[in-house]
Each structure stands twice: as structure tokens, then as C-alpha cells.
Write a structure and sequence with these properties.
heterodimer; A: 161 residues; alpha+beta; OB fold (Dihydrolipoamide Acetyltransferase, E2P); seven-stranded antiparallel β-sheet; B: 164 residues; mainly alpha
């Protein structure tokens, strides 16, 4: 199999063309892989009740570090993840996972509501009505990400655009 | 220290103003039309003490890292003692009823502040949630942008067809 990569600045979207002589197993696997590329990026291995699961990241509400162990919480179950919190932060920031305190990373897609609280904290209500706090230290980062906040944040977002 | 000294005057004026407002309300409730100059000087003294201590407790110039809870205790305990001492030394109230009135004024003021903060938090929360929903819908559009099969054709057949 030959691999040909072409860079074209004029196209808006990356296009994958598979040119084949016979549609064999290899071609089918390739098509299958490309078709499910999005989903594959969003799966993470996790332990629960002595079994290994493949958990879709989009199902995880938040992840927490407790006694140097990392746990992922979905609406139904708690999983133990085999990676550190900082690794998750680095890997999945683009998927909307953002740190809200020293020991917690939240999935922005699973937040139901936000409300400022005393002491510069922000109260987060998750989709399952669970409540978490964004610490004073991390609140500006979240505000910037959502495009909220004072003149300082507006200036930052204007500069970036 | 320089930064600390720069910020202290603002705090002193804030706490002196709070004292003046509370004192004026107290006098109005008591039916007193005038405030003695000595009381104003006492207010300035208390404002200076509380202002400096609040900048020390809550500011980052001297104590750079401490949780808000610890800072609050650090501020509240000495200031409560100071207020009690000044109330006794300056003989602010003649009867226990007057102390009760001061307590009620402070309580109402505190409740009013909490109410204002709660309303502002609710309004801000609504704004934050709107922004969050906008972010979520934007991100979900990006996520649904999965690779799609646009065309599937046989080049050989087309070529053969063209030859014919």
C-alpha cells in the first residue's frame, strides 16, 4: 500500500481519498478507521468493579484526583482511570475538559448551569444536578474560555481574534 | 510594603464611610440631629485601624498565599475585639438598648448586602449559563463534523466509458 500526502492550502476541509484496485479487507479497515476517527479519539480505558471498560469521554461528567488515583464520573458509574489528571488536561482540553480546581477537571459539555459564588468561586451544576465549585484560581480561565468577564477578558479575546 | 501603603488609604476611606453611614442611621433612629466632632475623629481612628487590617488580611502584599476562610478569621477576630474595646472606651452607648439598636443596624446592613450580592450572582449566573450554552452548541457542531463519505466511484469504469 502506498501512502500519498498532499498539502493544499486552498481547500477548506481535509479530504481523504482511498484509491484501490480491489475493495479488500485492508481497504475496508482503512475506510472503517477513517469513518470512526472522531469516536476513537474520544475513548478512554477505565476500570470499574474489577473490569476494564472503554468509556466514551463525552459520557464523563467530571474527573477527580483522590489519594493520587484518578476517577471519572459518568451519570451512572464511577470509573478509575489509568492516567494522571494533568495528562487528561493536556490531552483532552480541546474536547472541552477544563480544570476547575487542583483536583478536578470538568466536561464543559455536561454542565447544566453556572452561578458566581462568594469568594470569587463559581458554582457549577452538572447535568445530573451534582454541584461542584470552580476555585478562585481557575475561574478566570473558564471565564476567558466562555468569553465572559470584565474588560480584561474582552481585551484578551479581541487581541486573539 | 510600598504596594501595601498605596492600597491602605482606599480601605481607610471605605471603612470610615461605612462607620459614618452606620453612625448617621443610628443617630437618626435615636432622634439626634447633630454628630459631635469627637465621634467623627473616633470614626476616622476606627476606619484607619480596620482599613489597614483589612488590607493586611485580604491583600496579597504581605500575606501572599492563604485561603479566604483563614483570611476572614484573621480579619474578623481582632476587629471584633477592637470594636468591643472602642465601644467601651469611647462609651458609645448609654444603655443596653442602644447596643441592641447598633446590632440591629449592622444585622440589617449585612442582610441587605447579602440580598444585593445574591441578586447580582443570579443575574451574572444567567449570563454565564447563556454563554456556556452558546459554547456547548458551537462545540457540538464541531464534534458532529465526523468524516463523511462524499463520493464513491470507479475510475476504471469511467475511463473505459470515455474510451468507448
Amino acid at each position: 500500500m502506498l501512502l500519498e500526502l498532499k498539502r493544499n492550502k486552498d481547500i477548506k476541509e481535509t479530504c481523504v481519498t482511498v484509491e484501490y484496485r480491489e475493495r479488500d479487507k485492508q481497504v475496508n479497515s482503512l475506510v472503517d478507521y477513517v469513518s470512526h476517527l472522531n469516536k476513537m479519539d474520544k475513548l478512554v480505558m477505565a476500570n470499574a468493579e474489577n473490569s476494564l471498560y472503554q468509556v466514551n469521554l463525552q459520557d464523563i461528567l467530571y474527573m477527580e484526583s483522590v489519594d493520587r488515583r484518578t476517577f471519572g464520573y459518568t451519570a451512572e458509574k464511577t470509573y478509575e482511570l489509568n492516567c494522571k489528571l494533568y495528562e487528561i488536561e493536556e490531552l483532552y482540553q480541546s474536547l472541552g475538559f477544563i480544570r476547575i480546581s487542583k483536583s478536578c477537571i470538568v466536561n464543559l459539555q455536561k454542565i447544566h448551569a453556572l452561578k458566581p459564588d462568594y469568594g470569587g468561586k463559581i458554582l457549577v451544576t452538572m447535568e445530573n444536578k451534582e454541584k461542584l465549585y470552580i476555585s478562585r484560581q481557575y475561574a478566570p480561565v473558564i471565564k476567558e474560555k466562555l468569553g465572559i468577564g470584565g474588560k480584561k477578558n474582552e481585551r484578551i479575546s479581541k487581541k486573539s481574534t | 510594603m510600598k504596594e501595601f501603603l498605596k492600597k491602605v488609604p482606599d480601605k481607610i476611606s471605605l471603612y470610615t464611610t461605612i462607620y459614618m453611614v452606620a453612625f448617621t442611621v443610628f443617630n437618626l433612629l435615636n432622634g439626634t440631629d447633630s454628630i459631635p466632632t469627637v465621634k467623627l475623629l473616633q470614626g476616622l481612628f476606627i476606619g484607619a485601624c480596620i482599613g489597614s487590617w483589612s488590607e493586611f488580611s485580604f491583600g496579597k502584599c504581605i500575606i501572599s498565599e492563604m485561603s479566604l476562610r483563614k483570611r476572614t478569621w484573621l480579619f474578623v477576630i481582632p476587629i471584633s475585639l477592637l470594636l468591643f474595646a472602642t465601644a467601651v472606651i469611647f462609651q458609645w452607648a448609654a444603655s443596653p438598648n442602644d447596643y441592641l439598636k447598633v446590632f440591629c443596624i449592622l444585622l440589617l446592613y449585612w442582610l441587605f448586602c447579602i440580598l444585593v450580592l445574591e441578586i447580582s450572582h443570579l443575574a451574572k449566573g444567567r449570563h454565564y449559563t447563556i454563554k456556556l450554552k452558546a459554547y456547548q452548541s458551537e462545540s457540538s457542531h464541531e464534534a458532529s463534523d465526523a468524516p463523511q463519505l462524499v463520493t464513491a466511484y470507479d475510475v476504471t469504469d469511467n475511463k473505459n466509458g470515455a474510451d468507448k
